[in-house]
Every structure is written in structure tokens, then in C-alpha cells.
């Protein structure tokens, strides 16, 4: 399986990447810290670095990241929205620009990534879908999918 992890350079994202690569999955780390240096990290059994964009609040760039991950590592089976802004100042002291950046990354990026990913996953749903009870490929009208 191929996974894309936003915000995967450190913290929880990095640990998730380690766990996934440890079980043999391909992982593309899509993180602004890497983007500023001109690359994202693409990890699998043969660790390499791959260029990609990390503007996760831009649906077009998210779609490009998916295409890049799949052309490099194989079909994407997992997207982890882990990119966040963690302010280091009290809320009452935050400038409005910081609040807007937090909303853009912590909310808008999840919405835009979902909008980019949804057509890909829906196109594959008959092969990989399961309901909340783990039953594979339930019918479309199964209420347990709601």
C-alpha cells in the first residue's frame, strides 16, 4: 500500500511514517518544511527523495501529489491529514494573520484534500470498501455505510 502523510517530518506524522514503512508500505511525506527545501520525502524499501508540492489547501496540488505518489510508489491506499499549525503564543496574543493561517491549514486543507481524494477513492470503492463491521464490498444501499 502507498500512504501519503501531510506534516510527516516530525511528531506523530514521522512516527506513522516509521510504522508504515516498517511493515513494508510505501510512504510519501508531504510537509511544508520539506517543500521549502524543494522536495518531499518518498520512503519505501529503496528510500528516495521525490519533488512535490505541499500546499495541502490547494485541491489541484493535492491531486498532483496523489498522482506523483502513485507513479512513484503505487496506488494510494491511505491519506493522512496530519499537517497543522501549532501556535506557540496565547490565543489572546495571536495576530489575525496567524489565526487565518491556522484555519487555512487545519480546516481548509482537510476539506480540499478530501475533495481531491474522494473521486480517486470512489472510483476504486468496489475493490476496497468495507462497512463499519469489517464486511468487505457491501451493497451500495447498505445502511451501515452511512
Structure at a glance:
This protein is an alpha/beta fold and 146 residues long. The chain has four helices and five strands, in the order E-H-E-H-E-E-H-E-H. The model is unreliable at 44-53 (pLDDT under 50).
Structure description:
The chain is of the alpha/beta class and 146 residues long. The protein has four helices and five strands, in the order E-H-E-H-E-E-H-E-H. The chain is globular, with a radius of gyration of 17 Å. The chain starts with a strand and ends in an 18-residue tail after the last helix. About 7% of the residues have low confidence.
Gap from first CA to last CA: 25 Å
Strand count, sense and barrel status of the largest sheet are: 5 strands, mixed
What is the number of beta strands? 5
Based on the coordinates given, report the CATH architecture: 3-Layer(aba) Sandwich
The CATH superfamily bears the name NAD(P)-binding Rossmann-like Domain
